[in-house]
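INTERNAL AUDIT FORM
Audit reference: QA-55
Scope: verify that the stored structure record matches its stored sequence.
Auditor: D.O.
Record contents follow.
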Amino acid sequence: MIQNYNDLRVYISADLKSAGKALSVKNWILDPVLRFTIVMRITEYCFNTKKTIFIRLPTLFWFRMLSVKLGFSLGLNIFGPGVAIVHHGLLIIDPTTRIGKNCRIHMGVHIGGAAVFVDPEKAADFSPRLGDNVYIGPGAKIYGPIRIGSNCTIGANAVVTKDFKQDGLLIAGVPAKVLSEGETGARVVRPFAVGKEDNLQKG
């Protein structure tokens, strides 16, 4: 979670690297997903550090406006550093979901809590938790209070409704099952792994 300005820089740098993009005027104008990701991080920073309401409200409005435009329905503080949202289009994630660093996620994905009415303060107990270096293929559905390990690949259109806590699994099918073991997260981990000293790319 972004707790200070240095964290903000680290998260944005990691996101850009995972997406294989540079922060430039051209990309800012022409790439709406890049713009959304950066605005999401700025909004997280403003809320987590309890900036004045006159700063938080405009950033939240900007975040919500871009969400609607791109077809995204998600909250703040879901992703660790290094998220790569591959395309704009339908993407629905329960705001109490938590996903580790270096997540690569495609359009049509729906990640939701259990299909029950619960006390809002306990809602997080009923939402998914995913580890680091997880690849989520197009159209995947992940529901309920489930846990998925690190370095896992979730295949296109998979329906995941139970735990897969072991690291390095290839999960696919309806309902999802393990197709292979020993995944390394190669689909999402690039040579430039997340580092605290990373600086924003410019140019």
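Auditor finding: record pair retrieved intact. The first helix runs from residue 5 to 19.
Action required: none
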